[in-house]
Amino acid sequence: MKINFDIHDDQKGTRLDTVISDFYKACSRSRAAILINNSEILVNHEKKKPGFRVKPGDIISGIIPDTDINTTVLPENIHLDIEFEDSHMIVINKKPGLVVHPAPGNLAGTLVNALLFHEPEIKSVGEGPFRSGIVHRLDKDTSGLMVVAKTKEALYFLQKEFKQRRVKKKYLALVSGNFHDNQGEINLPIGRHQVKRKIMAVNHENGKPARTCWKVKKHFKAACLIEALLKTGRTHQIRVHFYAIDHPLIGDRIYQPRRYRKKKSLAPRQMLHSWQLAFRHPYSGQRMSFEAELPEDFLQTVSLLESIQ
User: Fold this and answer.
1) Among 10, 58, 139, 252, which one carries the catalytic annotation?
2) Does the annotation mark 58 as catalytic?
């Protein structure tokens, strides 16, 4: 597999071998170190050590041999809730708990496995065998709308639409506490947590701009049903933003004050649902809009909140 990508601000100071294993999770950090030492992977076309600390703007290039990674991703007959499908794309209402794509140690039971069963030709579409058809992602425990590409042309078009922020994404979320105002905007940069590198955080030094517009749809005694419109698409953006303003998502076990993490939650997962998705069709250019109903666990949590008014 050929790789060629730039280092972003939120990766500043990360070890080169860690960057490689994070970029392609099928390649372990130890294997990445061997490839780096053998000059298979370069930084700005120069050989570096595995412990080299990257900086924004560095160009990482090279080859990860297919023989070094397990590329077997098998089709599986997993039910897909399909909202729309044609020869170019599929719009799916992803159920909570479904991982989007495989990773080492978790090669089965994912959305990609289901897609390969539903449409075998999708295998050749995407960035490597683990991401067949994948244009964008939702967290495992986030439910709702996703668009999947069925052709390479559709993939490139839709990825560009997301990158240029032409895709409209609205979410519904249950957040802790109440607001004085019924609408607002969170404008806080997001980047890698400076200590816990696997999670994100508001990062004023190395973060990327991130904007979330929100409005209250319903008040409960100690919570709100929020409609969130993403103006940017940072990893875990809604979860991080509401945590940063002391209104963490109900059910979120990561972006939650430490004192609440071990307590029993009102919900089995973070209450976040990709509710509405609008974008241009990759072939016709026609504007298309979709809306997904709330899943049962979200509705049950709403009912529970209503009962403790």
Assistant:
1) 139
2) no
